[in-house]
Design brief:
Number of helices: 7
Strand content: 35-45%
Number of strands: 38
Helix content: 10-25%
Largest sheet: 5 strands, antiparallel
Radius of gyration: 33 Å
Distance between the termini: 120 Å
Structural class: alpha+beta
Shape: globular
Length: 485
């Protein structure tokens, strides 16, 4: 190698060594706790950022790229509009929007869920139903508008481990739990309706200590129940002016006549009955006339409406007049099972959205809540005239009310003096609850042409009455909830 080439190589080597000796500049910042969390946030993501769900429907939100070790907490900014469980399944409850947040180890991921009113187009005879295991019930469905060319209905259950349904709407309770049965038009799946079914375990046979009972006026006797469970019992009487019964099964004869005493597991199964005959007490032998004045005992006064019952009616009248005023202002009150739990919330929603929702038992519950008688727990009448009590609603009502089983028409009850203004009534022929206003009129928030009409498949209220919404001589009342204090 020539000297010239050797010198060139040495120069190149010196240049390389000098370059390697220069300080290295790092542009990325050192990783911190916050930057590590940011890196995790970029890896995990919500599968949707915005979805629309029809009121009454559910939708499952999912998180991507989870390792399975994370702690996840799901929340809704407006649970009254869209609820979410801890598995990310949302349920649209009322029209509006809600932000659903999943916090993964403290890092939030969000999705905007818009709940939209579905144009149902189908009406079911029941929107809620309680069954025991192996019990069956056939739902009836009808189109609320002109039937489509293909009027075939498709039935399905959201959880076949709870309830199954066949192609004709006949359900069978399978196991304890709650599931919705859905019916929809085969031609257009957006035309649909739902029934929420609650199934409880069969608790076996229940027997009364007597099928018949004879008492004299003023006499008492206790009925006992033989059964294999400890479910709470509800006692009632068809005519409390003849035979009264308390919630421990003590029956007292009040005046000559006949009545039927019933007992039923709370919210489960059918009642069993005891037929009670009450006879007048034997007359004592008249004493000789010694000039003493004998004062005859006055007959017991017929029941009278309480001041609290009058307060209930005044609140219902307030609600009804607001509906009438809102109709003139272009604000709609529509029938839906997805409705606000209190009057104030429904009123505020109507101001904000120009529409709000109500159903048949709700107006009475609104008033009871305003009066401080009932908290957020619910009750409602069911087909057959019974009552479903949720939570502690029955116990709360019994602090202020009598719960009376009657199974008679309004006219029969009026003839006995046993239907009073302010009585909250359930009806035997269909799932319905309303309040007697007096003079053969009712405060009602059911779907009845006397208080509103269907518009585009949705029932819109003109008022809540008072109006003649019930046949006085044929629609039997199952139970009366009467405020007495």
């Amino acid at each position: 190698m020539s000297g010239k080439n050797r010198r060139a190589r040495r120069m190149m080597l010196f240049a390389l060594i000098a370059a390697l000796a220069l300080p290295v500049r790092i542009s990325a910042a050192p990783e911190t706790e916050s930057s590590a969390a940011a890196g995790t946030a970029q890896e995990i993501s919500m599968d949707e950022s915005r979805v629309s769900v029809a009121v009454g429907d559910t939708y499952k939100l999912n998180l991507k790229n989870l390792t399975g070790t994370e702690t996840i907490v799901w929340t809704s900014s407006k649970p009254a509009v869209v609820a979410v469980n801890q598995r990310g399944r949302v349920r649209a409850k009322a029209a509006g929007e809600s932000v659903i947040t999943a916090e993964v180890d403290g890092v939030p991921y969000r999705c905007m869920v818009k709940a939209e009113e579905a144009a149902s187009g189908i009406r079911l005879d029941r929107s809620e139903l309680a069954l025991v295991v192996d019990e069956t019930y056939k739902l009836s469905a009808e189109f609320t508008e002109e039937s489509p060319a293909d009027s075939t209905l498709v039935w399905k259950s959201e959880d076949k481990k709870v309830v199954k349904v066949n192609s004709r709407g006949k359900m069978r309770a399978i196991g304890a739990g709650t599931a919705r049965v859905i019916v929809q038009s085969k031609a257009d799946s957006s035309i649909r309706a739902f029934c929420e079914v609650t199934v409880t375990e069969d608790v076996g046979v229940m027997r009364l200590s007597a099928a018949t009972l004879s008492l004299k006026v003023g006499e008492k006797s206790q009925l006992t129940v033989t059964r294999d469970d400890d479910t709470a019992l509800v006692w009632g009487t068809s005519d409390r002016s003849v035979a009264a019964v308390n919630q421990k099964g003590f029956v007292r004869g009040k005046k000559a006549g006949t009545a039927v005493v019933s007992v039923q597991r709370k919210g489960i199964g059918s009642p069993i009955y005891c037929h009670v005959t009450v006879t007048a007490a034997e007359a004592e032998e008249e004493p000789e006339d010694d000039g003493e004045v004998v004062v005859e005992e006055e007959e017991a006064e017929a029941p009278k409406a309480s001041a609290s019952a009058a307060r209930l009616l005044s609140l219902l009248d307030k609600y009804s007049k607001q509906v009438q005023a809102d109709k003139a202002a272009g604000i709609r009150w529509e029938y839906s099972n997805s409705a606000q739990n209190t009057w104030s919330k429904a009123y505020n929603a109507s101001r904000k959205n120009k529409v709000t929702y109500v159903n048949c038992a709700l107006t009475a519950r609104w008033a009871l809540r305003e009066m401080g008688i009932l908290d957020s727990a619910n009750f409602w009448g069911v087909a057959g005239g019974g009552i479903t009590f949720r939570g502690t609603s029955r116990e709360q009502l019994l602090e202020h009310c009598e719960i009376i089983q009657v199974n008679k028409t309004p006219n029969e009850l009026l003839a006995e003096g046993n239907l009073l203004p302010g009585d909250i009534c359930t009806h035997v022929g269909y799932q319905h609850t309303n309040v007697y206003a007096g003079d053969n009129l009712w405060y009602d928030s059911g779907r009845n042409n006397a208080i509103g009409s269907y518009q585009d498949g949705t029932f819109v209220f003109d008022s809540f009455g008072p109006a003649a919404t019930v046949s006085m001589d044929s629609d039997k009342i199952g139970y009366i909830i009467r405020i007495v204090r």
